[in-house]
Write a structure and sequence with these properties.
By secondary structure, the protein is α+β, with helices and mostly antiparallel strands. The protein contains seven helices and ten strands. The strands form three sheets. The protein has a six-stranded antiparallel sheet. It has a two-stranded parallel ribbon with strand order 1-8.
Length: about 230
């Protein structure tokens, strides 16, 4: 049986490779060296370790199966074990998932069990090691074909404010600051009304694509600073 540590070993061999949003990585090609996007990277690593497709559009052809953070969320509800984010922080090889907003993408990484990640991050940074804290995650995921071992004790999750599309919409002066910054950068967030709705989300997403940031349409510390905003707002 594959282990969480073996997932990390496979993933670490690809640090430094390129990122391209929307690429399909052939899961049955052991020699693939990128480019990747975040979901393709995680699904490819899982297939190499277990021979199983997960988080993909189809379970029939690993060469063509399209990985997507939304499909990872779907599969977590039926095949696998959703766990608390804090528990994923201390479990090597566990997956941390940010579920996508409608018509957008989320983000997905492997936890190294020691507060770090291995992930296909963005066009600017490619496949990197990063950190789990001060980022927004919706869930941790353990796969049924992988044996995991926890490290240490559960660490508290540091709260972080992230401006994003929600129901009801996030509102306030912080949203207005984001909208003004997007407008001034040449993107169209809609009215400067302090309402983080679909138009502001689309503008944030377009800005992230252009700047090579993680393209999820959410405005946290890194996107805010790229907009030349002081954080916290």
């Amino acid at each position: 049986m594959a282990t969480g540590s073996s997932l990390l070993t496979i993933a670490a061999k690809h640090i430094g490779e390129k990122y391209r949003l929307g690429v399909i990585a052939p899961k049955n090609n052991p020699d693939w060296k990128g480019p990747w996007d975040c979901a393709e990277f995680c699904s490819w690593v899982v297939y190499r370790a277990t021979g199983k497709l997960y988080g993909c559009s189809t379970n029939s052809d690993p060469a063509l199966a399209d990985a997507y953070t939304g499909f990872w969320a779907r599969d977590a509800n039926t095949v696998g074990n959703k766990i608390e984010v804090a528990k994923a922080f201390i479990t090597p090889g566990a997956v941390l998932l940010r579920v996508p907003a409608p018509n957008l993408i989320g983000h997905i990484v492997f936890s190294d069990g020691e507060g770090g990640t291995i992930e296909a991050h963005s066009t600017r940074r490619g496949v990197i090691r990063s950190t789990v804290q001060e980022r927004r995650w919706d869930m941790g995921i353990l796969l049924p074909w992988v044996q995991y071992t926890e490290h240490g004790v559960i660490m508290p999750v540091k709260p972080v404010v992230v401006y994003r599309l929600m129901d009801p919409h996030m509102k306030g002066e912080g949203v207005k600051a984001i909208q003004r910054a997007l407008r001034d950068a040449g993107y169209a967030p809609g009215k400067i009304d302090g309402d983080f709705g679909p138009k502001t989300t689309a503008a944030a997403y377009a800005f992230q694509i252009t700047k090579g940031l993680t393209p999820d349409g959410e405005v946290g510390p890194k996107t805010a600073r790229a907009l030349k905003l002081e954080w916290p707002l």
